[in-house]
Amino acid sequence: ATTAGNSSPAPAQPNAADGLASTYERQNATFVTLARNQDLWAVVGSIREVEDRYNHKYHYDWVFLNDAEFTEEFKTIVSSFVSGKAVFGHIPPEHWSYPDWIDQEKAALVREEMNEKKIIYGFSEPYRHMCRFESGFFWRNPALDAYKYYWRVEPHIKLFCDIDYDLFAFMKNNKKSYGFTISLYEYEATIETLWKTVKGFMAEYPQHIHPNNALNFISDDGGETYNLCHFWSNFEVGDLDFWRSDAYRAFFDYLDKAGGFFYERWGDAPVHSIAAALLMDRSELHYFNDVGYWHVPFQNCPVDEETRRRLHCTCPSDDSLPPDQRNIFTWRGYSCTPRFHKVQGLERPKGWIEHTD
Ligand code: GDP
Ligand code: MN
């Protein structure tokens, strides 16, 4: 049940007035945001960031998904901020509920235990449905059927720099399937048996593991253990056809059967990342250095002064801050992005600084 926003203006087409070349080729792409009605103003804030820095030139559509019905107020206000078509999708209950093989009493006990251990979101039932939904179902929502590429946007995010090219066209022209801005280490307590499960999948479905995979981004010992590196999935620019593939469906089903979305607190970030690292050609992964991005509490910001000025970045330059306040997270110890550059054989951007703190 997908309804276009009533008050959404006719979708504006990009044209020369937007400063786009006459050869500009619009992509089959959309933004996608999962949100609750009470997230309205935080969603509007994120839309404004994305419109001001990027979408005012391209007018891509924006799909909003919710496990409850969006209110008329939500739809009207949100539609008035999106320069493309705003589409409001409903999540069917079977994409946001317990599969029949899950023991719900056991799951409730786990939530109590994880709460006592103060594990982040350990107590939360909706958070687990959200992580399972983002892993296995967002890309199956009918509202996304028409699109090939997506950009995931969450409430409360910021974009620090202008984006002066079409990210979706970049994906297509460079044969990329998964793009990220931030990568980091996962809390081990949330995924204790995830890697064991992934190894089971690899043994049972070797035909789905890409011969040119990026296993060495997520494992330091050839696959024996997981090094906890993952792409932070609150920002993703990706190819929906990857999630729709037989390989990923088999991967998700295998994980879902194992029960870790409920008996632990598996996040969609490690699930997406492990899948992207194992099932894709490693050349399909992309780090967007020039997309200045913030989601509490980490940020990505170009370090190169020329880039920062050209793109009108508002994140403070690292050099301007005392060491204990520097927050160009990307090149610091808790980020996996230096490792990504190493294993992919990429040159680091001009101006990166090694931090040992
Ligand atoms: P965090 O980024 O891991 O701290 O988690 P968030 O609270 O930002 O949730 C991740 C995404 O899922 C955001 O886009 C939220 O708006 C959305 N979300 C989280 N819980 C729910 C929920 O229960 N219902 C709906 N509709 N969206 C949710
Ligand atoms: Mn968030």
Give the structural class: alpha/beta
Average pLDDT across residues? Answer: 93
Task: Count the E strands.
Answer: 13
From the alpha carbons, calculate the radius of gyration and give it in angstroms: 20 Å
The oligomeric state is single chain
The CATH class is identified as: Alpha Beta
Subcellular location: Membrane
Protein name: Glycolipid 2-alpha-mannosyltransferase 1
Membrane topology: Single-pass type II membrane protein
GO molecular function, one term: alpha-1,2-mannosyltransferase activity
Summarize the structure in words.
By secondary structure, the chain is of the alpha/beta class. The chain has a single domain (28-286), classed as Spore Coat Polysaccharide Biosynthesis Protein SpsA, Chain A, CATH 3.90.550. The chain has 13 helices and 13 strands. It has helices at residues 40-58, 72-81, 104-116, 125-136, 167-173, 194-204, 215-218, 240-244, 246-258, 260-263, 268-279, 305-310, 337-344; strands at 2-4, 29-34, 61-66, 86-90, 149-152, 158-159, 178-180, 183-185, 229-231, 236-239, 285-287, 293-295, 298-300. The protein has an eight-stranded mixed sheet with strand order 1-4-3-2-5-10-7-11. A hairpin with a 2-residue loop joins β12 and β13. α1 (40-58) packs parallel to α2 (72-81) and α6 (194-204) crosses α9. The longest helix has 19 residues, at 40-58. The radius of gyration is 20 Å and the shape is globular. Mean pLDDT is 93; it is low at 1-10. Residues 34-36, 39, 66-67, 126, 130, 154-155, 234 line the site of guanosine-5'-diphosphate. Residues 154, 234, 295 line the site of manganese (II) ion. It is a single-pass type II membrane protein. Its main location: membrane. It comes from Wickerhamiella sorbophila.
